[in-house]
Amino acid sequence: MRVTFAFFLLLLSTNAAAQQRGLGLYAGVSVGNFQLEEDHGPLSVEVEASPVDEIIGSTAPTISGRLDDSQLSLKVYGGWNISRNLGVEVSYGRANELTSTYTEQVGDVTVSANLSTNIDIGSARVMGYLPFGVGALFGGLGYFNAKTSSTQNVGLVVSGLGSVQSPVSLGGSATDNGPTAIVGFQWSLPILTLRADYELVDMNAGRAATLSAGVILGF
Question: Residue 198 sits in a domain of what CATH number?
């Protein structure tokens, strides 16, 4: 038992020393502000009611839109600092209810759509560190994969007739991937490390960025 306890203490002291040198495995969690700018559309609106077809003809109205919103986000991450200057990291982040409203006039028909989007982003990157007294500046380059889940509430109004169709909910999802970059600062304390970072994601139809702060625990 004494031998086991002594080995456990030795392991802890070795790991603590490694963490002080900026080495070893780590895991962290951050909260922040997620900003998404993305072009959509055109969004097609299919009109099924025959009175509406007679009024606007066979061409269904379409609207083009742009999602530009920010929401609170959560990110968890972990990695391995191979040396004081080099490491690898993976992360997963999520933001909910990014919203935007589109309106377009098509002849006598006013088309409106409210778009609500949730996004999940996973990434892997190579990290570089510039250590100094109480912490380090860092930057990383990598690759991301994202999934967006959206709901569109679409409605039609015809001049002189009012609403001719109750709002219709349309759901869908899409995936995206590409390069990602991160820069930030971390401050080492005796038990944990504080971290602030800015992450940029290059999406196909726009871009996403997260400014977040969190804590890291070493293993």
Answer: 2.40.160.20
